[in-house]
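Good morning C.,

I know you're traveling, so I'll keep this short. The sequence:
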Amino acid sequence: MEGPLEATWHALILLASGDAALWSIVGISFRVSLQAIAIATPLALLLAFVLAYLRFPGRRTLVSVFQTLQALPAVAIGLIVYLMLTRNGPLGDLRLLFTQTAMVIGQVLLAFPLLVALAYAAIRGADRRVWETARTLRAAPGRAMLTLMHEIRFGLVAVVIAGFARIISEVGASVMVGGNILGVTRNIPTAIALETSKGEYAQGIALGLVLVTLALALNYTLSLLQSRDEP
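The tokens, ready to paste straight into the viewer:
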């Protein structure tokens, strides 16, 4: 078994050498999570706006439900999707279990409540006069909504980043519905868990460095965008 220093050095070599197995795992992880966040974000932002600006029976209950669901464990989402997609489940005939599509479904369900809850808070904190002014100028509701969201775009970008970080680093749902199949559904978190359990730390460290680098890059990009918008 390698020591910490040897494993870290080996991890750096794996990253620099373009190890095919390592970068295949990274590619799968990014492909699945980017698809999931792209699917979940538009509907989540629309629903968050509806909850923040429209009044209808049950609105407060829905807000409470989404605020509660954002903390739902990933393994619980994985179990729900597994039961839906298993051979005897209602969607078993689609044969999606242990595929990347199943992982996307799980991650969409995981990200959606978080996106709604955080976007709702961001939209509620926006200056309502932006919406009122747009409507006074006879902008269509959709155009007025986009105007409001443009005013708080950096807050919404932070929401999307939080959602993406949540799903790309989760383990429970991906293992249950993806099966951790090498070259097919093995992503960064499941690979880290597997390699660490085997005492093979180099690949786990390398993949961990990829996640840390991603987090730094996302936060730096957000800070850069915010600084450019400042007078």
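Safe travels,
E.
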